[in-house]
Specification:
By secondary structure, this protein is an alpha+beta fold. The protein is about 45% helix and about 20% strand.
Length: about 160
């Protein structure tokens, strides 16, 4: 762990393991491919409706394959983590991105999750929780940053209270 002076919002330094891209790709395939396969089966087994099912079978894989191609690469670029002597830093998301900073003195539990697909890739998910982890807001943490913009500071304080 490295010693830093101040806890603040900044990008974490470490990328997730490269195997996460494979995990996200397989996870997206499980989400994106069943519907086109169902349309293909319906095409084979319901001859009067083949005209409809052939177009559905051909149309649905396009967004599914695009999702499988884009999402894992984008998530790998965004997801980062870091643990210092003062805080845990995390960045996640691919369309909507979230940065979180949790000072170590606020950490209550650290949990790991290893689902079946994660185990296949030798990966784990880690969740750091605090007593005030509702919506990921850490009261007072962003105050120095927000003091430069009083309107935004008032909105953030109202959210915390």
């Amino acid at each position: 762990m490295e010693q830093t002076g101040e806890v603040g919002l900044r990008p974490p330094r470490h990328r997730v393991d490269r195997r996460a891209r494979g995990w996200w790709t397989l996870q997206s395939a499980v989400f994106a491919l069943p519907l086109p396969l169902v349309f293909g089966a319906l095409y084979l087994f319901i001859p009067p409706a083949r005209f409809v099912f052939v177009w559905l079978f051909l149309a649905f894989p396009v967004p599914g394959v695009a999702y499988m191609a884009v999402m894992p690469v984008r998530r790998y670029r965004v997801h980062r983590w870091e643990v210092t002597d003062q805080a845990v830093y995390a960045a996640s998301g691919w369309l909507w991105q979230t940065w979180r900073v949790v000072p170590l003195f606020r950490v209550q539990t650290v949990e790991t999750l290893r689902g079946p697909i994660q185990q296949l890739f030798g990966l784990s998910g880690v969740t750091v929780t605090t007593a005030s982890s509702a919506e990921g807001v850490v009261p007072g943490l962003l105050t120095p940053f927000l003091e430069r913009d009083p309107e935004r500071a008032a909105v953030e304080r109202a959210r915390v209270e």
